[in-house]
Amino acid sequence: MTATDTNMDYTRSATAMLRHWASRQPDAPMLTLGDETVTWGALYERAKEVATALAADGVVAGERVAFLDRNGIEFFEVFFGCALIGAVSVAVNWRLAHAEMAGIVEDAGATVLVYGPDYAEAVDDITHHVSDVRRFLPLSELPGWRSAASAGGAVDPGFEPGPDDVVTQLYTSGTTGLPKGVMISGKNLATILTGAVEVFRIDGDTVSMAAMPLFHIGGTGWALSGMSRGGHTIIVRDIDPVEILRLIEEYRITDSFVVPAVLMFLLATPQLAATDVSSLRTIYYGASPISEDVLVKSMRAFGCDFAQVYGLTETTGAITSLMPADHDPDGPRANLLRSAGQPFSHVELQIVDSATGEVLAAGEVGEVMTRSDQNMLGYWKKPDETADVLSTDGWFRTGDAGWLSEDGYLFLHDRIKDMIVSGGENVYPAEVENALLAHPSVVDAAVIGVPDDRWGETVKAIVVRAQGADSDDAALAADIIASTRTRLAGYKCPTSIDFVDVLPRNPSGKVLKRELRAPYWEGRERNIG
């Protein structure tokens, strides 16, 4: 089946997509991880068994089911199994500290927690902090659990989500550091599945590589888009450049989405020169800044099309793209390489004055706002925070600053919020600052993002030391960083610390972070991913 098929009804939901392709091509490969390949028909049977087992456990439509493990085939068994009965899948960020994982599971009110063997210790730690979980299910027991419940035959309950039914809930940190559950609806997923041909040029012979973590919209959203026309998806469990190159060659991968850091890893891998990458059609990249040098070298090394995408969890992923035709570093419009591209045909963009709400003219910098059927339903159990970013007429405030050119290209300029994007991971300074201030040698602290050739940007702390604290900067910095690692996921922790006598503040007491960032970003036009 190719993009020439004009029957689009089967893409109206993830469940309809699964049913359609499982019926039409049951023996075609759907998912591969390592030595295991699962067909469309087999995955559908497993999903039906999961749905039956969940129902037997008393799970009903709207209940949350949490999943904690690295990328794997089981994720999709649970995701589709939930969808078949209307339950809501919640992918937990496995990079978080145990307390942070517990916070997400508890906030979601998950009644089932499925987890991999690498996270058994984490689950032991959080068991007494997640009050709604009725079943803790190790992945090793998943096959027996679903098979036993389906001994009399697994039946598809036939649930089909409405436009405003929540299908999956992905967590993104808030500006206060507290996680927020982004409710992704049936309408949201229907939009990206239906638009996969236009947006990602997905076809029936697409062989997609799912390399990004599935707790990210860049992981789940990309994977579902790649499946939308019945293609084959190759799952990458861990980012290993040598293994990624092997997979490209062995499975003749045609399309992938990666963060710039992965491109840098691949460029630095000697095996690249000897790898047959001729199957690649398009590499999509985004989620963090990329240097023009890395982009141009990647284009030359892989010899395929490149397309940049920009979006957020709250917009169910990409809403703009700098398409391959605009990737011409030697052409008259080489400046477009600094752009995030143009909005998709179903997406509206506008730039507004964040203080007044006034819509700004082309070329004027303001807050990026977007409206489309990809905008989330809202934040789970956070109506006030939802109202702050999502207007009654459907406009979403991204919190990013940028400007639009006369011909509609979006150029991202800076952040309205102070969020740091490091290797595709969102880091909110307030959360890190709270961890820093817990150290006895810290009396004041501010956290900023600074340029990093590998990760786009990385976390730097500016600290005022307490009286009597160690005067050895290097030793004290190492001790403070080690302390934050006991409280936060590793990617959120500072990679460097500068010590100052006092932090610059405005008359109301707010730290002047733009002033702190300025020396590190001098000479760079784009301070955002």
Summarize the structure.
30% of the residues lie in helices and 25% in strands. The two termini are 35 Å apart. It is α/β, with parallel strands linked by helices and 529 residues long.
Descriptive account of the structure:
The protein is α/β, with parallel strands linked by helices and 529 residues long. The protein folds into three domains: 9-236, ANL, N-terminal domain (Rossmann fold, 3-Layer(aba) Sandwich), CATH 3.40.50.12780; 332-415, Luciferase, Domain 3 (Luciferase, domain 3), CATH 2.30.38.10; 422-521, ANL, C-terminal domain (GMP Synthetase, Chain A, domain 3). It has 16 helices and 25 strands. A nine-stranded mixed β-sheet has the order 2-1-10-9-11-12-13-14-15, with helices on both faces. Helix 2 crosses helix 6, helix 4 (98-108) packs across helix 5 and helix 11 crosses helix 12 (292-302). The longest helix is centred in the N-terminal third of the chain and has 17 residues, at 40-56. It is globular, with a radius of gyration of 23 Å. The chain starts with 13 loop residues before the first helix and ends in an 8-residue tail after the last helix.
Keywords:
30% helix; Rossmann fold; Luciferase, domain 3; 529 residues; nine-stranded mixed sheet; alpha/beta; 3 domains; seven-stranded mixed sheet; disordered N terminus; GMP Synthetase, Chain A, domain 3
SSE diagram, text form:
Blueprint: H1 14-24, E1 29-33, E2 36-39, H2 40-56, E3 64-68, H3 73-85, E4 88-91, H4 98-108, E5 112-115, H5 120-126, E6 135-138, H6 142-149, E7 166-173, E8 179-185, H7 186-194, H8 196-200, E9 207-210, H9 217-227, E10 232-235, H10 241-251, E11 255-258, H11 260-267, E12 282-286, H12 292-302, E13 305-312, E14 317-322, E15 342-343, E16 348-352, E17 366-371, E18 378-379, H13 383-389, E19 396-404, E20 410-415, E21 420-422, E22 425-427, H14 429-437, E23 442-452, E24 456-465, H15 473-484, E25 496-499, H16 513-521
Parallel strand pairs: 1-10, 3-4, 3-5, 4-7, 5-6, 9-10, 9-11, 11-12, 12-13, 24-25
Antiparallel strand pairs: 1-2, 7-8, 8-18, 13-14, 14-15, 16-17, 17-19, 19-20, 21-22, 23-24
